[in-house]
Amino acid sequence: MLKQIWLVLTLVMTCLLSQVANAQAQLPREVVTANIERVSGFYQADKEALPYDEIVSLATEIVQYRHQYPKDVIAKAYVLLAEVAASKGDAARAFQFAIDGLTYKPLPAELQLNLEIKLAEGYFVKSKYHNVFHFVDQVWERAMQEGLVKYQLLALGYRAMANALIGENQKAADDLHMVKELVEQNLQYAEHLQLLEVIAISYHYLGDYQTAMEIHERILKLRFALNRKNGIEGTYYNLAAAYRELERLDDAYNAFWQVKQIAEQRVWPIKRAYAELGIGQVLLDQREYQSAYLALVEAEHSFKGQNLNKPYLSTLIALAKASFATDRQAFALQLLVLAEELAEIVEVAGDQVDLYLLLANRYQIEGDKDKALAMLNRYVELQHQFFKDAKARVIRAPSRLAVEDSNKALALDLAAAYDAHTEFSEQVRMQRHYIIGLTTLSLLLLVVLIVQWLTYRSRKQHDVYEQLERPTYLVPNPAQTKYIYHRAFKKARKYEYPLTIGYLTIGNWQDLTFSFNKRVIAEVNKTLATLINEHMGEFDQSGQINDGEYIVLFPHQSQSQAKAKFEKLIDALKVRFFANLGEFSVNIRFSLDTPAVQDIDPYIFLSRLSDVS
Question: In what order do the strands lie in the sheet with 541-546?
Answer without folding.
Answer: 541-546, 549-555, 499-506, 588-593
